[in-house]
Amino acid sequence: MTGKSVVPGRGRKPKPTARKVAAGNPGKRKLNDREPSYSEIQSVDAPEWLSADAATMWTLVTTELIREGVLTVTDLHNVEAFCTSYSNWRIAQKEIDQNGITVEGATGGLQKNPAVTVANESLRQIVTFGSLLGLDPSSRSRLMGSAKKPVGNQFSEF
Questions:
Q1: DSSP letters of 39-89?
Q2: Backbone phi, then psi, for 82, in 5-degree steps?
Q3: S-S: 68 plus which of 35, 97, 145, 158, CB 3.0-4.6 Å?
Q4: CB under 8 Å to 1, separation ≥6 — which residues?
């Protein structure tokens, strides 16, 4: 056995070459010079089919990702999925707020409101797609955004 994972998708995800270069290639391993580089997006409108909640989230998320220089054409499906999941969660949460966690079943007894399942599944999708886009603190720290201008020390000339 080689010691490597034989199941695709298991184990730690490889660090993008750009991050290795920015860090000075601390592992001194050969860099992947064939890694694809996709077109960075400068602006993008929300798809017309998105609900109002999803379109609002689209604008918020894409504005930030574009500002940081990390949104590419190949990320748009993840943004759509994230925003759609957010909208589904909002719809389910409104149903839960209105009718409660339990509802009367067909036989008259209480049962779990089906909206609870929708809300839970939507939240899991939000976490998954948000992580892929760097929208949570942990995954954000792994992303490399546009180079920031160094903030000068006002006392450095003394």
A1: PBPS--PPPTTS-HHHHHHHHHHHHHHHHTT--BGGGHHHHHHHHHHHHHH
A2: -60, -50
A3: 145
A4: none
What is the share, in percent, of the chain residues with pLDDT greater than 70?
Answer: 79
Give the H/E segment covering residue 17: helix 17-22
Predicted pLDDT of residue 151 = 56
Closest CA to 21 of 31, 7, 11: 31
* φ, ψ for residue 29, nearest 5 deg: -85, 160
Tokens of 5: 């994972």
> Per DSSP, what are the bridge partners of residue 85?
none
Residues 69-125 have pLDDT tens digits of: 889 999 999 999 999 999 999 999 999 999 999 999 999 999 999 999 999 999 999
pLDDT at 157: 59
- How far CA 45 is from CA of 59, 80, 109, in Å, comes to 8, 11, 47
